[in-house]
C-alpha cells in the first residue's frame, strides 16, 4: 500500500470529513490488513490519537472502542467472562500474540472478512455497532449491507447476558485461516448459531436456530435435525476445502456446539 | 516527517515517510537485528517491543511510533545472553535468523508473568516461525530459561 499523506486526526468529525472528501482516502486502524493491499491511498486517516482503545463495562453492556486491539479483548476479564469466554477463545486462535497486539476490533469488523474468527462469536451474542454518522445498527444488518463504508466505526456494544458459548475454528495448520468456524450460544433459553468461513462472511444459521428454539425439549434428535438444517446455508469451494466438506463440518460442529451449550451450566 | 522516540532507553529522532514501517526505518538507521522475513505479519522475525508489547514491525507504521518506547534485542542484553546459552546447550538455533524475534517474545512473556509450561509457551510463540529447528528444542530451551528465573 502506498500512502501519500498520513493524517493523525484529532476528532471523529475530521476523520469522517476526510473519508467522504475523496474516495482515495482510507481509515487506518491496526493497518495490518491494509498493508497487504496494492492500492494507493491519498490520505491515510489514522485514528490512533482519538483514544478509541477502551473497554467499558456497565451492568448491561460492554462498550468497546473500535481501536481496541484483539489482544486487549482476548485478555480482558469482562470479555473472558462473557458467554464462557467465547469471544476471547475465538481471538486467541488468530495468528500470534504480536499480530493481535496490533490489529483492532474495528478493522476486523469493517473488513467483513469471510475468514473472520471474531464475527461468528460476535454474531452469536447481541452485538451492535456505533458509527459516527449513522448511529447504532445491529451487527447482522451491517454484515448484510453492501457497498463502500463511508462512515467511521466508533464503538461496538455487546449486551451482557447470562449465557454460555462454544467456538470452534477448523483449520489445517496453527496459523491458517479457518476452513470453517462456528459459534453457538445459549442465553435466556434461546440458542444462536453463527457460521463463518463458508468461505463467505459469517451468518446466523436461522433454520437451525429455529429448530432448537421452537422445540419443546432440546434432545439429541432435535439437535440432529438442527445440525442438518445448518447444511442448507450457502457453502462454496476454495483451495482449502470443498463446498461439500464445509457442509459436513457445519453439520458436525453445529451438533457438537449445541450439545455443549445445552449441557453446560450457566 | 520527524518522529522522536526512545530506542533501547536512548532518545532518538528519525525521518520517516508516511507509509514507512518500523522494520524499514530501523534497518535504514542500522538496527539490523530487526529482520524482515515474510513482510506480511506472518512469521514474527521482525518482532519489536513497542511500549513493552511485541508487535510485527513490518506492519507498524513508523509515524505512529512518535513518542513510543521501542526495544530491540540489544535492549534486553540479559535475556538475550541467558537465552542464547540455553539455546546453545539444546541445539535450538541453527541459522539464528528467527532468534531476535523469539528473544523479544520470550522477554515479553516473562514480563507478563505467564507460567512456563508447554501450552503457554506454544501459545505465546506460535507467531514466531523458525525454518530450521522444529520447535521442540526451542521450547525446551525457553522452558529452562524461564525456569531459571523463578
Ligand atoms: C497475516 C494475517 C493473518 C490473519 N489471520 C486471521 C485469522 O486467521 N482470523 C481472523 O479472524 N483474522 C485474521 N486476520 C485479520 C486480523 O485479525 C484483522 O481483522 C485485520 O488485520 C484488520 O484489522 P486492522 O486493525 O489491521 O485493520 P486495518 O487493516 O487498519 O483496516 C481494515 C479495513 O477496515 C477499515 N477500518 C478500520 N477501522 C475502521 C473504523 N473504525 N471505521 C471505518 N473503517 C475502518 C479500513 O479502512 C480497512 O478498509 C489476519 C490478518 C493478517 C494480516
Ligand atoms: S517480517 Fe514481519 S512478521 Fe514476517
Ligand atoms: S534457527 Fe534458522 S530460522 Fe530459526
Please specify the SSE layout and strand pairing:
The complex is a heterodimer of chains A (266) and B (150).
Chain A: E1 2-8, H1 12-21, E2 26-28, H2 32-35, E3 40-46, E4 55-57, E5 61-65, H3 70-75, H4 77-81, H5 86-92, H6 97-102, H7 105-110, H8 118-123, E6 127-131, E7 135-138, H9 139-144, E8 153-159, E9 163-170, E10 180-187, E11 190-196, E12 203-204, H10 206-214, H11 220-230, H12 243-263
Parallel strand pairs in A: 1-3, 2-3
Antiparallel strand pairs in A: 4-5, 5-8, 6-7, 6-8, 9-10, 10-11, 11-12
Helix pairs in contact in A: 10-11, 11-12
Chain B: E1 2-7, E2 10-15, H1 22-28, E3 47-50, E4 53-56, E5 69-71, H2 77-89, H3 99-111, H4 118-125, H5 136-148
Parallel strand pairs in B: 1-5
Antiparallel strand pairs in B: 1-2, 3-4, 3-5
Helix pairs in contact in B: 2-5
Flavin-adenine dinucleotide (FAD) sits between chains A (26-34, 47, 66, 70, 94-95, 103-104, 106-108, 110-111, 115-118, 149, 152-153, 177) and B (40-42).
How would you explain this protein's 3D organization?
Chain A is of the alpha+beta class. Helices cover 36% and strands 25% of the residues of chain A. In chain A, the strands form three sheets. Chain A has a five-stranded antiparallel β-sheet. Chain A has a four-stranded antiparallel β-sheet with strand order 9-10-11-12, sandwiched between helices. In chain A, strands 1-3-2 form a three-stranded parallel β-sheet, covered by helices on one side. In chain A, a hairpin with a 6-residue loop joins strand 11 and strand 12 (203-204). In chain A, helix 10 packs antiparallel against helix 11 and helix 11 packs antiparallel against helix 12 (243-263). Chain B folds into two domains: 2-74, Beta-grasp domain (Ubiquitin-like (UB roll)); 76-148, Orthogonal Bundle (DNA polymerase, domain 1), CATH 1.10.150. The termini of chain B are far apart. Chain B has a five-stranded mixed β-sheet with strand order 2-1-5-3-4, with helices on one face. Helix content of chain B is 36%, strand content 15%. Chain B has helices at 22-28, 77-89, 99-111, 118-125, 136-148; strands spanning 2-7, 10-15, 47-50, 53-56, 69-71. Bound molecules: flavin-adenine dinucleotide and FE2/S2 (inorganic) cluster (2 copies). Flavin-adenine dinucleotide (FAD) sits between chains A (26-34, 47, 66, 70, 94-95, 103-104, 106-108, 110-111, 115-118, 149, 152-153, 177) and B (40-42).
Amino acid at each position: 500500500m502506498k500512502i501519500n499523506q498520513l493524517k493523525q486526526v484529532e476528532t471523529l468529525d475530521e476523520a469522517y470529513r476526510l473519508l467522504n472528501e475523496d474516495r482515495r482516502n482510507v481509515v487506518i486502524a491496526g493497518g495490518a490488513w491494509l498493508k497487504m493491499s496494492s492500492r494507493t491511498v491519498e490520505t491515510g486517516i489514522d485514528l490512533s490519537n482519538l483514544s478509541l482503545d477502551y473497554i467499558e463495562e456497565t451492568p448491561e453492556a460492554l462498550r468497546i472502542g473500535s481501536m481496541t486491539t484483539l489482544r486487549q479483548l482476548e485478555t480482558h476479564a469482562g470479555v473472558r467472562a462473557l458467554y464462557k469466554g467465547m469471544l476471547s477463545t475465538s481471538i486467541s486462535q488468530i495468528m500470534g500474540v504480536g499480530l493481535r497486539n496490533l490489529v483492532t476490533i474495528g478493522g476486523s469488523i469493517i473488513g467483513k472478512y469471510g475468514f473472520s474468527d471474531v464475527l461468528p462469536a460476535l454474531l452469536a451474542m447481541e452485538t451492535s455497532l456505533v458509527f459516527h454518522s449513522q448511529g447504532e445498527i445491529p451487527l447482522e444488518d451491517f454484515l448484510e449491507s453492501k457497498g463502500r463504508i463511508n462512515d467511521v466505526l466508533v464503538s461496538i456494544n455487546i449486551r451482557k447476558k447470562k449465557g454460555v458459548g462454544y467456538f470452534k475454528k477448523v483449520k489445517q495448520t496453527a496459523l491458517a485461516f479457518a476452513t470453517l468456524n462456528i459459534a453457538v450460544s445459549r442465553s435466556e433459553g434461546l440458542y444462536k448459531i453463527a457460521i463463518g468461513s463458508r468461505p463467505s462472511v459469517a451468518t446466523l444459521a436461522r433454520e437451525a436456530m429455529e429448530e432448537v428454539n421452537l422445540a419443546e425439549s432440546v434432545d439429541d434428535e432435535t439437535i440432529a435435525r438442527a445440525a442438518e438444517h445448518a447444511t442448507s446455508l450457502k457453502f462454496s469451494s476454495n483451495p482449502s476445502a470443498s463446498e461439500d466438506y464445509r457442509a459436513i463440518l457445519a453439520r458436525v460442529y453445529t451438533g457438537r456446539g449445541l450439545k455443549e451449550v445445552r449441557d453446560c451450566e450457566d | 516527517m520527524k518522529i522522536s522516540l526512545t530506542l533501547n532507553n536512548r532518545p532518538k529522532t528519525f525521518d520517516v515517510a508516511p507509509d514507512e514501517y518500523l522494520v524499514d526505518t530501523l534497518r535504514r538507521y542500522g538496527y539490523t537485528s530487526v529482520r524482515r522475513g515474510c513482510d506480511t505479519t506472518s512469521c514474527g522475525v521482525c518482532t519489536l517491543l513497542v511500549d513493552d508489547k511485541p508487535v510485527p514491525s513490518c506492519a507498524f507504521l513508523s509515524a505512529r511510533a512518535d513518542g513510543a518506547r521501542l526495544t530491540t534485542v540489544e535492549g534486553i542484553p540479559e535475556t538475550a545472553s541467558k537465552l542464547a546459552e540455553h539455546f546453545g546447550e539444546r541445539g535450538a538455533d541453527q541459522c539464528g535468523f528467527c532468534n531476535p524475534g523469539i528473544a523479544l517474545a520470550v522477554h515479553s512473556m516473562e514480563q507478563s508473568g505467564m507460567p512456563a509450561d508447554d501450552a503457554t509457551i506454544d501459545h505465546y510463540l506460535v507467531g514466531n516461525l523458525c525454518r530450521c529447528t522444529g520447535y521442540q528444542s526451542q521450547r525446551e530451551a525457553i522452558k529452562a530459561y524461564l525456569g531459571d528465573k523463578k
